[in-house]
Write a structure and sequence with these properties.
Helix 10 packs parallel to helix 13. It is globular and about 120 Å long. The protein contains 15 helices and 81 strands. About 15% of the residues lie in helices and about 35% in strands. Strands 16, 18, 23, 24, 25, 26, 28, 29 and 31 form a 9-stranded antiparallel beta sheet that branches. Strands 1, 3, 8, 9, 10, 12, 13 and 15 form an 8-stranded antiparallel beta sheet that branches. Strands 36, 37, 38, 39, 41, 44, 46 and 47 form an 8-stranded antiparallel beta sheet that branches. A hairpin with a 5-residue loop joins strand 42 (about 585-590) and strand 43.
């Protein structure tokens, strides 16, 4: 039979070699195809049979006939030497079957003189394929290829192995598990010797850099590149050298294991030896951290010996009445699924335990005159208490396997136990080890670390960026747009563009303006100068981004718009050859295609921005640089064709002529919006739906979307299989349900809400089904989970179309809007499908009902076709959510005056917002809010005047108290509301809110001091004239305290000033017609929140607090005002002098620039520095020379 099998294999090898040659010739390969033609079943033939004593999954293989089998004892091996010329150095095919009860051993090894080697090694029951190329120049402890497959392969079952290598392509198969690998770097050729060893590394002088042991077990059907190695060895061919004890029959002794299937399992065995010692030995393997291994009674002392696992460590405990127990702890991490040997001995003098040959400390036993065996040994657990046993198990029963059990030096006959003639047991599987590796395959996604117990597995998602039972769900948003609509401000964020897909998250900057901009940086943002290039010697600049090309592509595809600014500076450096039109410089994007359009031009036009706008420096060209001028110019513009972005490379070839030079600068990739986030559809009838291809979420599936409805029920989504299905629906106004079937009947989980979901606001739903559990979460409600059924199908098998918004029966459909529907991180384009579907409309309005609360500080939510924005027109704040306060630093003597109307007559015909404050209108209420920081007293914070000599002033008095003065009747004294509980000019930030309703005024200071006051002077403000911040410049009929503070003004920081819907600081710093604002003196935008000294503005502010504090004589307010007028006149004189000095300085500067330009031209050939500052200097000089004539006229 062996010769027939060998002939078949040789023929298949010839056929496969032809196929491989075709692969090499075609230079193409599909990693999902086998590297060689499929080998026939005979190549893996076996005389193995399943034992009838147990069910499938616990296969026990009987002894072999000796055909095509070799037995290696852990010291022996086979060495095969061959003709090197007959084999290719770039390909290998190796197939074999093996079985062993040892967890470690080398199955094959071939190496070369320079460190190249191929090794197949068993480590802790797993197979490792190690391939190292000396050309890789890696450390000796590293392998270029390190593939791992299989687990628990030391189970005495036969396992098949197939290794296929073709250059850099490798297929590695163990049983039903296959690993495809494409090596990188210099790997195609391996320099190997003309010999290969099986079962060990026996050749003298051979040295490897990794620890190894010889293989101890049996090999079958061992073929190397079509050669039957075992057949050659049996025939004692000279190519084969058998080293050590090699036999051709698998005579390895069988050990009968026993499986403890549950925490109720136990094995009770008697001991009739009568020796003065309690002793036992056995081997065990388990995944559980805790459980009883052995309990033995001590008949004469009513005590017991207890051996158990606790936190993966072995603990031996001897207990006796009236005495403290004796304990020994040994081993660590013994719940690793590997076989561990245990030996224990208890005498009247010593208590010993050894784990894997390592003896733990022996404890002398005191007070125990005698110790006899003869009791019962309980392995793995204790029987029910009704049996009268003294056995105790503090940490529960053991789940795992045991073998080679001995009591008092006598091996236990488990066959007798199985037949009922020895001891008794419960819930055991005798004659097999039923342990399984629940982490193979590893269902923990995105790099999650898998651990397991006997019955399940766990995923540790720490530092992966994902969460959930299988690390499937990303903890990050998919775009800056999504972060924005969670209320986040500008900053650095991790983005996971494909959600639960395979792409990793990456860090970028989100600029939250009216829309969310994504900013992705690269390594080429500095200005780079290029010289001495030509078409034969081109310059190539490469750009490396902070994300991979796959991550960038996913981000760009989601965005509504992307752009990147590219600037090309040139001096006698053209972009296009004007004779034949061939490009002389170009750039390359992610499609890896040459692009010759620059800045704003559409693809294939070969134009620049100036060519599109018709303003190039030479009208006969479409780019400024093509004019070939002998001075610096540039072509700058935005590249916005998404399919070509980002720019990955720029090539320049025309800087080889005399005085020829170029420079370039590439800005970051900028993208805005998120097409997927707002992609939505409206379902008009219960019979309407959208259909998509079948959803494939066999192992793990997640579905997320937003919905908005007024209906009480309806199906959001449904996909059916023959028996399997998934369905998500609104079951009632307060219940959302996820139903599914993975082959063993329907299950459903629901989220119950205390409020109704059919409130016409957006609600977010996310469901997930994986190998561990199913879950559903709606909004921020507590998620509901359902453990995966243990007997269900592994795969969710669906075959119908995916129905969205309805069902295949066109009943119980959904009425309302569905938005941002994603399946396993991929967005379904609802709008595109809705455009061609009756009774379904693309898009959905009404976002402000849900997102309007994000607009703060009197900002108003405004609808957009896709999304919304916050209108900050009537807010003292700015930013995407009207949350960025507008603050200003006021220097000494400065002021901001907001004129509600220039005169009373004009107010009658005004339609402006300010008009509602004056004219014929009586103002009976107002809301005032602002914050301030100052150290100066007295100070005027805010002053509102009217045409009828009524006013409101908010001041800090000379003693530091805050005073609010209302005068609503010209004939009465003002009402004064005084807060003297602390000095308000203490340099700290204070918040003021004043709310007046007719004669009742409510005041709040710093969110903790509140007062309510009734005014006596009146209830209405007539014809409001102006609002003043800082110094009062014109004479006003006010009380003395207000006049004193008004003359002094305000020095410090004011922030978020608002009078009802008027924001004077905003009008001053962000002017827009027709706001009538006058700014006098030094008023600059600043931040009142920043600590002193953190920037130039704050340093200036601190200086003002320290050096300009003090008081003005309250007896001479008008005199001080006159002094200030004199200061204004002096300032005008100073301005005239300054202008004269500037004219002189300009003339000197022109002369210096001429000299510098001549000096630069003389030294240009010596200067090859590419620094950006040098180029900018040259550009400035060039611009200055061009404008010299204009400056002389000036």
């Amino acid at each position: 039979m062996g010769s027939v099998t060998g002939a078949v294999l040789k023929m298949l090898l010839l056929l496969s070699t032809q196929n491989w040659n075709r692969v090499e010739a075609g230079n193409s390969y599909d990693c999902d195809d086998p590297l060689v033609s499929a080998l026939p079943q005979a190549s893996f033939s076996s005389s193995s049979e399943l034992s009838s004593s147990h069910g499938p999954g616990f296969a026990r293989l009987n002894r072999r006939d000796g055909s095509e089998v070799v037995d290696l004892d852990g010291k022996s091996s086979l060495l095969y030497r061959f003709d090197q010329k007959s084999l290719s150095p770039i390909k290998d095919i190796i197939s074999l079957k093996f079985k062993t009860m040892q967890s470690d051993g080398v199955l094959l090894h071939r190496e070369g003189p320079n460190g190249d080697h191929i090794t197949l090694q068993l480590r802790k029951g797993r197979l490792f394929l190690l391939i190292n190329s000396g050309e890789a120049k890696l450390p000796s402890t590293s392998a270029l290829v390190n593939l791992t497959l299989g687990s628990l392969l030391d189970d005495q079952h036969w396992h098949s192995v197939l290794i296929q290598r073709l250059g850099k392509l490798i297929n590695f198969t163990v049983d039903e598990h296959r690993h495809h690998f494409h090596a990188r770097g210099e790997f195609s050729f391996l320099n190997l010797d003309d010999e290969i060893s099986f079962g060990g590394i026996p050749a003298p002088g051979k040295s490897v850099s990794f620890p190894h042991r010889n293989f101890h077990g049996c090999l079958e059907n061992l073929y190397y590149n079509g050669v039957n190695i075992i057949d050659l060895a049996k025939q004692q061919k000279p190519q084969i050298i058998a080293m050590g004890n090699v036999s051709f029959a698998c005579s390895q002794p069988q050990s009968m294991p026993v499986t403890f299937l549950s925490s109720r399992s136990y094995l009770a065995l008697p001991d009739f030896s009568g020796e003065e010692e309690v002793s036992a030995t056995f081997q065990f393997r388990t995944w559980n951290k805790a459980g009883l291994l052995l309990f033995s009674e001590l008949p004469l002392v009513s005590g017991g010996v207890l051996l158990f696992l606790s936190d993966g460590k072995l603990k031996l405990n001897l207990s006796q009445p009236g005495k403290l127990p004796s304990d020994i702890t040994a081993g660590v991490g013994l719940n690793d699924g590997q076989w561990h040997s245990v030996s224990l001995s208890a005498t009247k003098n010593h208590l010993n335990v050894a784990v894997d040959g390592h003896m733990a400390s022996a404890t002398p036993l005191l007070g125990l005159e005698q110790i006899y065996s003869g009791g019962t040994y309980y392995f793995g657990g204790c029987p029910d208490k009704s049996f009268g046993s003294k056995c105790r198990s503090p940490l529960g029963g053991f789940q795992g396997c045991m073998r080679l059990i001995s009591i008092s030096g006598k091996v236990v006959d488990l066959i007798s136990v199985q037949q009922g003639s020895l001891g008794n047991f419960s819930d055991l599987q005798i004659d097999s080890c039923g342990i399984s590796d629940r982490c193979l395959p590893n269902y923990c996604e995105h790099g999650g670390e898998c651990s397991q117990s006997w019955s399940t597995f766990y995923c540790n998602c720490t530092n992966t960026g994902y969460r959930g039972a299988t690390c499937h769900n990303s903890i990050y948003e998919q775009s800056c747009e999504a972060y924005k609509h969670r209320g986040n401000a500008s900053g650095f964020y991790y983005i996971d563009s494909d959600g639960s897909g395979p792409l990793e998250p990456f860090l970028l900057y989100c600029n939250m303006t009216e829309t969310a901009w994504t900013i992705i940086q690269h390594n080429g943002s500095d200005l780079t100068r290029v010289r001495n290039t030509n078409p034969e010697n081109p310059y190539a600049g490469f750009f490396k981004y902070v994300a991979s090309m796959e991550q960038l592509q996913a981000t760009i595809n989601r965005a509504e718009h992307c752009e990147q600014e590219l600037t090309y500076y040139c001096k006698k450096s053209r972009l296009v050859n004007k004779q034949d039109g061939t490009p002389l410089s170009w750039w390359i994007g992610r499609t890896n295609e040459t692009q010759t359009y620059w800045g704003g031009s559409s693809p294939d036009l070969q134009k620049c921005t100036c060519g599109l706008e018709g303003n190039c420096i030479d009208s006969q060209y479409y780019c400024n640089c093509d004019a070939d001028w002998n001075k610096w110019t540039n072509d700058t513009g935005l590249l916005s064709y998404k399919e070509h972005l980002p720019v990955t490379k720029i090539v320049i070839t025309d800087t080889g002529r005399p005085h020829s030079e170029a420079a370039y600068k590439l800005g970051p990739l900028l993208c805005r919006g998120d097409r997927s986030f707002w992609n939505s559809a409206s379902f008009d009838t219960e019979a309407s739906y959208l259909h998509f291809p079948t959803f494939h979420g066999e192992l793990s599936a997640d579905v997320s979307f937003f919905f908005k409805t007024t209906a009480s029920s309806g199906v959001f989504l449904e996909n059916l299989g023959i028996t399997d299905f998934i369905r998500i629906e609104l079951r009632s106004p307060t219940v959302v349900t996820f139903s599914f079937d993975v082959g063993n009947g329907p299950f459903e989980i629901s989220v119950q809400s205390p409020t109704h979901f059919n409130d016409n606001q957006w609600h977010h739903v996310r469901v997930e089904r994986n190998m561990k559990e199913a879950s559903i979460q709606v909004d921020q409600l507590t998620p509901e989970t359902q453990p995966a059924p243990a007997d269900g199908h592994v795969l969710l098998q669906l075959n119908s179309q995916l129905f969205v918004g309805g069902t295949a029966t066109r009943q119980r459909g959904f009425l309302g809007c569905i938005r941002s529907l994603q399946l396993n991180g991929m967005t379904l384009d609802l709008e595109e499908r809705a455009q061609v579907t009756p009774e379904v409309q693309p898009g959905c309005r009404g976002h402000c009902s849900s997102y309007g609360k994000l607009c703060r500080n009197a900002g108003k939510c405004r609808e957009r076709p896709t999304g919304f924005f916050c209108d900050c027109t009537f807010s003292a704040y700015t930013g995407p959510f009207c949350s960025n306060e507008i603050s200003a630093y006021f220097g000494s003597g400065s002021s901001v005056i907001y004129n509600f109307q220039e005169n009373y007559l004009f107010s009658k015909n005004s339609s402006s917002h300010a008009a509602s404050f004056h004219g014929d209108t009586k103002l009976s209420r107002e809301m005032i809010k602002f914050s301030f920081r100052t150290t100066r007293t007295p100070s005027l914070l805010l002053f509102v005047s009217s045409f009828y000599k009524e006013y409101l002033s908010i001041i800090i008095a000379k003693n530091g108290s805050l005073q609010i003065r209302y005068k609503l009747n010209r004939y009465q004294e003002p009402d004064v509301i005084n807060f003297d509980f602390k000095n308000m000019a203490d340099g700290q930030l204070h918040h003021i809110m004043i709310n007046r309703e007719e004669g009742m005024v409510f005041v709040e200071i710093d969110d903790n001091t509140r007062r309510e006051v009734h005014l006596a002077s009146g209830t209405e403000f007539s014809a409001v004239k102006s609002l003043v911040l800082g110094r009062i410049l014109e004479h006003s009929d006010v009380d003395q305290e207000t006049a004193l503070a008004g003359a002094q003004g305000f020095t410090g920081c004011l922030s978020a000033v608002q009078l009802s819907h008027v924001a004077p600081l905003k009008a001053a710093l962000y002017p827009s017609h027709p706001d009538p604002v006058t700014v006098t003196g030094h008023v600059t935008e600043s931040s009142c929140v920043a600590q002193a000294g953190t920037d130039a503005t704050s340093r200036e502010r601190t200086h003002s607090f320290a050096d300009h504090s003090g008081t003005i004589d309250d007896r001479e307010p008008l005199a001080n005002a006159i002094k200030s007028d004199s200061a204004v006149i002096g300032g005008l004189i100073a301005v005239v002098i300054f202008i004269l000095l500037c004219i002189t300085a300009i003339a000197v500067r022109i002369y210096q620039q001429k000299r510098l330009y001549k000096r630069s031209e003389a030294k240009r050939s010596e200067n090859v520095d590419s620094a950006e500052a040098v180029l900018k200097s040259e550009l400035n000089i060039q611009n200055a020379v061009n404008e010299n004539q204009k400056e002389y006229f000036f």
